[in-house]
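Closing statement on the pyridoxal-5'-phosphate sub-project.
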Amino acid sequence: MTPHTIAPLSNPKIGNIFCFDDTRCAFIITHPRARTIKLMNPHLDQLQAYPFQKLAKLFGEVTANKALKPISLHIGEPKHETPQFIKDSLIAGLDGLANYPTTIGTDALRSAIANWLARRYGIPTPDAKTQILPVNGSREALFSFAQAVIDSNKPNPAVVCPNPFYQIYEGAAFLAGATPYFLNTVPEDDFALNFTQLPEDVWLRTQLIYVCSPGNPNGRVMPLTEWKKLFEMSDRYGFVIASDECYSEIYFGEDKPLGALQAAQQLDRGDYKNLVVFSSLSKRSNVPGMRSGFVAGDAKIIEKFALYRTYHGCAMNPAIQTATIAAWNDEEHVAENRRLYAEKFAKVISLLAPVLPVSKPDASFYLWIKTPIADTTFAQQLYRDYNVSVLPGSFLARESHGVNPGENFIRLALVANLNETLEAARRITEFTLKLNH
Ligand SMILES: Cc1ncc(COP(=O)(O)O)c(C=O)c1O
C-alpha cells in the first residue's frame, strides 16, 4: 500500500502523516529527520543548554550600560595568577612529550597525590597504586565516572544529585542511560541533603549519587553526621558515592573543610567502600587551563574506572604530570590564594550586607544570595544598568518537587581581582538600593 497524501505536521518533532486511502483512515507517523537521528545517541537530546548559554540569551534581550566597564562574576573560573613555579615545572616536563603517557600516570605523580591527601586530611597515606588515579580536571572525570559505574542492564537506573548542582552530573546521568533525581538543598534545611525527599523505590534503583562539598553554589561543607547518614544509605541500597571536592582548599581561617575520605576514616570505613573523591588543582592552584585533578577512594571501583579510561584514552600529558607533582607538593601558594579570597569576601560582604542577605560561606569562592525580585530579572537589570554579570540561581537548578530551589537566588563568583570585585559590589549595592525605592 503506497500513501497518496503526505501531510507535514506543524510540530516538526512529531513528523509527517501519510494517508493511505480516503475511506480507510490509516496513518503512519515518521520523523522527518529519522535518518540523522538514528545515527546519533538519543540521550544527547536530553542535554539542557548550559547555564552560560541561558545567560547569554537573557542578556541578549537587553543592552548593557556601555558607560561602565564590564565586570564578570558569573563564571566560577579562577582569575588569580598561576604561580611561576608551576609554569616552570611545566616547561621542565616538556621532554616527556616524546612518550605516550599511561592512563594511571607515573608512580611519582600518584605518590605525590597520596601524600598530599595524608597531609591534608590527617588520614593514613592511601595506596598510590590502587586508590589513586590522575584525571584531566575533575569535570571530565565526574562525567566519565557515571559511564563506568552505571549498569543500564538493570531496570531504570537512577542517579541522585543535589539541586542546585554542577550541570555535569545531570549530563553524565543521561548519557549513561540513567535518570537524574534531585535533592533540593534549601535554606530551611541549612542547605543540607534531605534524603527523605526521594521515595524508597528511587533509592532502590539508585546506582550513583553525586555530592559536592564544599558546595557549588552555596559553599556549604557537609558535616560528619551527614556523611554518616549517606554512608548508611549507600550500605543499605548499594549505590556509589561520587564526592566532588574541587573547592576543598578555598576556605577561610583555620578550619579546613572535612573531606569524604577523612569522614570515612573517622567512621571506621578505611576501605572507602563505594566512595570515590574527585579533586582538582584548578581552584587550589589557579590552573584551570592545566586540566589536572585526581580521583581517590575505593580500590575496586578505581580499578574498573582505570580500565574504562584506558579505552577512553584520557591519560594525563607528561608535562602536566610534572607540574602537577610540584603543585601538590607546595602549600605556600595555596595559603596566599586563600588570603586573597578572604580579603575579597570580608570587603564584599561588608559592602553588600546593608542591602542584601549575605553571609560568608563555609568555603568556596561563591556568594549565594537571596534576591528581592526574580533572580533572572535581577541579573538582567543589573547587567543592563550596571554592566555586572551574575548568574541567576534558577539556571543552576531544575524544577523538582514542584519548585526550582535556585529561584530567587543569584550566584556571585568572587574571582576577579580585588578592585574589580569591590567595584562590582558597589554597583550591586547601588542597584539593589534603587530597587528598594
Ligand atoms: C562543583 C564543580 N565541580 C567540578 C568542577 C570542574 O573543575 P575542574 O574540571 O577544573 O577540576 C567545577 C568547575 O567549575 C565545579 O564548579
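The pocket of pyridoxal-5'-phosphate is lined by residues 76, 137-139, 166, 212, 216, 244, 246, 280, 282, 288, 293 (CB under 6 Å). With this model delivered, the sub-project is considered complete and its resources will be redirected to Aim 3.
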